[in-house]
Structure formats: structure tokens, C-alpha cells
Amino acid sequence: MRRFLTLTLIVILFAVVLAGIRLFGQWQHFLQAPIAEHSESVVWLAPGSSFRTLVRQLEVLGLARFDWRWRLYGRLEQPVLQAGEYELEAGMSAVDLVDRISRGSVRKHRLTIVEGWTFQRLRRVLADDPRVRSTIADLDPAELMRRLGCAGCSPEGRFLPETYFFARGVSDFDLLERAHTAMQRTLDEIWAGRESDLPLDNPDELLVLASLIERETGQSGERARIAGVFVRRLESGMRLQTDPTVMYGLGEDFDGRLRRVHLTTDHPWNTYTRHGLPPTPIALPGRAALEAAAHPAEGTALYFVSRGDGSHYFSDTLDEHNAAVDRYIRGRP
């Protein structure tokens, strides 16, 4: 009988050891094995989400089951989870994921503000982006600019076109504030290094001129040449006579086709009827357009006309310009 009991105890002990080894192996596999081996998935944690909420999302994605390993890990580590959107990369383990969430390494999205956009279009893009939290829908432009620290400024042209990275849930105001700060910093820098003899009185006028260059330029290599034409016209007292200013001033009344009556109807942005720069920028100029406005190319051209392929033909005289218009616009030999 004693021998039987001894043998039984040995068998039980052996079974316990084997079970312990098996459980230890499962635990080590849990700590090291990837959750997702191939596909990439995303989890979203709202503020105050629990560890169980995280695992429940993984269960929905088919990547985990709330078994004893997850329970033990949660009790041992007691991780503090930060709200946000997190990306599960291929090969990432459970430990890697929880560590990422504890550090708040949220997934980054990108928004590219394109050169030549108007402020109205930028605002519409932000309003339509589901990743961005809307906070300025009821703000008029004047109040928005006041909150951005530029009371009395037109919002047009005041946001630097470039790519901005952000976490899901960022507010539209925060993105605009970043773009506005970037534009102001860039404008101040370029104004400080401008050519000394420009017919411009302040950085705001440089911003306006850059917006005209941005809207007229089809090929990047022509920015400085177009800037040179505008600067020589300002210096000589000629009207700028640039179509994009007329289109901008027409606003929603512009149907996509510029007519002669538009060029002769006076409004503050009509550079065919008024001398000098328009009262505000007409678009968001990029850094290259700002640099061109600050460093226009030397030359004698006073006119340019589109060739229809994105490039322009530059002329010194009105007769030469009219001939170029006949050739490239009217299709006359």
C-alpha cells in the first residue's frame, strides 16, 4: 500500500511538473510570439479604456482571446493605457503592443496642404476629414484669426502648404494653428533675407505677391521669372493684369470661364482696373513662391502668356506680347 501511494505521488508530481512546463512554455510563447504575423490592424482606445477593452478589440479582430495569459499579464504588469489610435505591425507581440500603448506612441496620419489652395478649400478639406475633430465650424474667419493671434488679418495665404503629421482626433484648430505658425516663421525668415530694392513695404505685401506667383506658375522653374515681371510692373507703375486675381475676386460668381466683362468690372482684386497689389493674398503660397517673390529673376520682360502646356512665353514689348497671345491663345499663326 505504501509503495502504491509513493508511486501515485510520483505520477502526480510528474504530471504537475509536465503541466508547469507546458504552462511556462505557453506563457513564454505569449510574451514573444507575434499577435499578427502578416496583416496590419488598428485598435482605438477611448479615454478611460480598460485593459479588458483592449483585449476585447483584439478578440474582434481575431488576434487574441482573453484567456489566463492575458489575465495574468494584466495583473502582473497593470499597464496604464493611453487613449488613441494604435497600429499593430506585422511581427508585433502582445508585450510590444501594450508597451506602445503605455508610451502613447499613437498612429500618425498625414495631411498635405497643397500650394495654390484657397483658405476656403483648406477649411473644407479639414471639415470633410473624419480623422480631424471639428471645432471651428461656427467660427467666422475674423474670429478664427483673432484666436490665432492675428486679429484683423485675412486668413487667405496665412497657412503654409506642406505635409503635417497628426494623431487621429486632433482638432481642426490645432492643425490650422500649426500651419499658421509655420507660415509666419517662414515669411519672417524669407522677408529678412529678401533683395533690398524690392517695391514692397512689409512681409504682408511679400505674401500677397507670392500668392500671385503661386497661382500663375505652371512650372517651378518659372517662378522667379514671373516674380521679375510683377516686380518690374510694380516699379514702373503698370497694372499687374493677372487673371487669377480677377477670378478670386469673383468668388462663387466665377463659373470657370473668364470673360472680357470680368476684366473690366472693378472690384478690389481686379488688377486690370486697379494699380498695385490686391488687398489680400489670393491663395496659399508655398515656400518656393515666397522665395521667388523675395528674389525675383533679373530681366526685361514685362509680359507673359501661357503656352498651354504649363509654361509661359515672356515678352519685352506689348507688340511681341500681342503676337504671342494670337499664337498661343487665339491659335493664329
What key attributes describe this structure?
mainly alpha
Task: List the SSEs and their pairings.
Blueprint: H1 2-32, E1 41-45, H2 51-60, H3 68-77, E2 84-88, H4 94-103, E3 108-112, H5 119-128, H6 141-147, E4 163-167, H7 172-192, H8 203-216, H9 223-236, H10 243-250, H11 260-264, H12 287-294, E5 303-306, E6 312-315, H13 318-328
Antiparallel strand pairs: 1-2, 3-4, 5-6
What would you say this structure looks like, in words?
The radius of gyration is 32 Å and the shape is elongated. It folds into two domains: 32-106; 108-299, no CATH class. Helix content is 48%, strand content 8%. The longest helix has 31 residues, at 2-32. Helix 9 (223-236) crosses helix 12. It has 333 residues and is mainly alpha-helical. Strand 5 (303-306) and strand 6 form a beta hairpin. The relative contact order is 0.09. The strands form three sheets. It has a two-stranded antiparallel ribbon. Strands 3-4 form a two-stranded antiparallel sheet. A two-stranded antiparallel ribbon has the order 5-6. It has helices at residues 2-32, 51-60, 68-77, 94-103, 119-128, 141-147, 172-192, 203-216, 223-236, 243-250, 260-264, 287-294, 318-328; strands spanning 41-45, 84-88, 108-112, 163-167, 303-306, 312-315. The N and C termini lie far apart (119 Å). The chain has 13 helices and six strands.
